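User:
I study polymers; will you set down one protein's sequence and backbone structure tokens?

Assistant:
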Amino acid sequence: MDTIVELQRQLVEYTTSLYNEGFLDDQFNQLQQLQDESNPDFVVEVVSLFFEDSERLLNELANSLEQQSLDFKRVDAHVHQLKGSSSRCLKCLQHVKHEYSLVKSKLETLFKLEQQFLAAGGTIPMP
């Protein structure tokens, strides 16, 4: 029983910190509300699809920006009104990649804590 209490404390603290740091917001709450007993992994599945799509997009952007002759029409298809020189774009892309990695890491940690809590017999209340 102490394990469940400790895991619940960790889960609540970590989730609260993600909201306070701006990694989670009302859209995440809305996503959680769509999850039910018939699809208990809905949020994890949606976020996993987001990660896959984002990684693909970031790789396509990186490839486009690394070309000697930039095809700005192609880059613009991925980001709206891309401006500045290619070096500035590469710097911005690196920043986006860093932010993406940070969000991915934090959400993966959240889902692992939830899994441990559920495996220990806890239940997560719907928001």
The chain has five helices and no strands. The CA atoms of residues 65 and 90 lie 7 Å apart.
